Amino acid sequence: MKSNRWLWGVGLFSVTLLCLLFLPGLREASFLIDDNILFNQKYLNTPWSLSSFKTLVTPGNSPDYYPLRDLTVWIDWSLAKDLMSDTTVPKLQNLVWFLGAVLWVGLILFKFTSDATLSVLLSAAWLFHPFHLESLSWISARKDLMSLFFILMAAYFLVSHFKSAIQGKAGLTWMVLSFVLCVLCKATFLAMPFAFLIWYLWKVRKESLRLDRNLIYACGAASAISVVFVLINVWNYSESNYLQMNEFWNERVLSVIAALGRNIVGMFVPFFNAIDFEPWGGWYKYNKIFIPVGIVGALLFFGGLIFGLIYSTSLLLVISLIGAILLMTPGFNPNHRNYYSIRYFEPVFLILWIALGLWLARFKDRNRISACLLFFFILTHWYDASNWHSNFEIAKKSKLVSPKDPSVQNLLLTEYHNLNIWGRLSQTEYSEFESLYRDLLTACIESKTMNGRCLSFYAHLQQFTSVFETSSVKRQEILRRALAKTIEIKKITFSEVASSEIAWSIFNFKVDVDGVFDVEALREFFFQHQYINIDTYRVKYLIFRCLDIGEADSQSLYKDWQSQNLIRKAEVNEFISSLKRDSLRQTAQNCFKTPK
Fold first, then answer.
1. Residue 435 domain-assigned?
2. Which of 54, 82, 88 is nearest to 70 (CA)?
3. pTM, entire model
4. 468 in helix, strand or coil?
5. How confident is the model at residue 403 (pLDDT cuts 50, 70, 90)?
6. Is pLDDT of 335 > 90?
């Protein structure tokens, strides 16, 4: 009884301390990357209705198809006034999902080991590992936390099935249902049923075991569900989201290996865990230091695969599950352009952590070792947590890790710009803001070399030049040079949508500098982007329909989208107010008038 009280005390202390370390990050505004696109869709910010629900569950209305995640965002909006200026509610919900995942980790470890002390200490240590700080601090990581929660639930029912003396169908049914909920949150684990099924058949054949037909049927059902969701996600990403890139194969391989190495190092040294911004255009060049570690990791993976095939089915299971996760991970997955994010590797870390727990269970000093791990991770979490409390601190840490990367520099520059708009910059910080702008101007505009990592800077350059360039002639010259470099880089970097992406840059340039709406540029862009799933695209598409067909057409479509809760009036008003010429504003207002 005293032992149980002690374990309850450890759990309560861990959760309380985590919450205390988490509190300073509340009330922060949304982050630059993904938050506005994924959490600020009109159909998520409306009272519950059948129309909004239909919009939510229909593929193509959002950049990714994760309807269960979107349902939880609906709850966020029900409890908060403005998620973009205050992310307290979604961050608290992220915390709840994370704590739920920690609970499943403890239950799974207990199912395997029957050692309550070991299970509590290791799950508490996993809770404090600084690897999770990105998912807790970034509201767009909700999908990762939710999918982790449900795949752990599925794993618990699967382990319970193996441990049960009577292997019936009930636990496996719950396993399949949990898996369905998992893939409704994110596609990370879509390949896992195939990997597990292949491993199980290998184990039965190698060890001459009796085939569990109920398990085969359950894994078959989960695999069939995976096929459906794979097809939906392939369609959504290839036809709607356009995340694929056309970098040379050697650059892609080097970037994947560098990302693998950086994640491995980050498990042990939290300093290197940072948010990166649009990892494209030679990302590996700024992360070369991690390539040797990535090569070692890849060799260990394939070496473990060979050893597992010959000697150990347990090791083979670990390698198979890791392989299934990496198969769906951006960078490894050819349908996704991004290479690095801590949360991409979090499920791999989870597999390794549970494997570590099962290995420690063999030793007499397992609880002492687990307690030391818990203490160490509390200290490292405490050390690193302050770097994730605000968007500004997150961006500063990213630049500290990759100080010469223009894309990461632009991330910090954007946060400086936001703070400047809100009047929160000190004189010293404003000087740092201007100095960083000048550095990027030298690296990305004045330099003769083409650097794909400058694309994000070019995309935001208009707002920066408005602050620092008093001469309109010089400002226009900078923007023209940026457009020329953007076009050249996109020809090399982007795949079959290069012309479309170039047209998007040309349209935005002509609106800002020449003061005209380029209809042909919009025609080229929307010829490729047939599925219009964010408000920025919807507003420009209405302008295109207005100028190409007529005001009545755009007005009618605007009214239809409003009835489906697909477009926010605020986005329309922001676009109109951003136009600097009266003639453009008048044209836009006519395009968006609601017909009587």
1. no
2. 54
3. 0.93
4. helix
5. very high
6. no
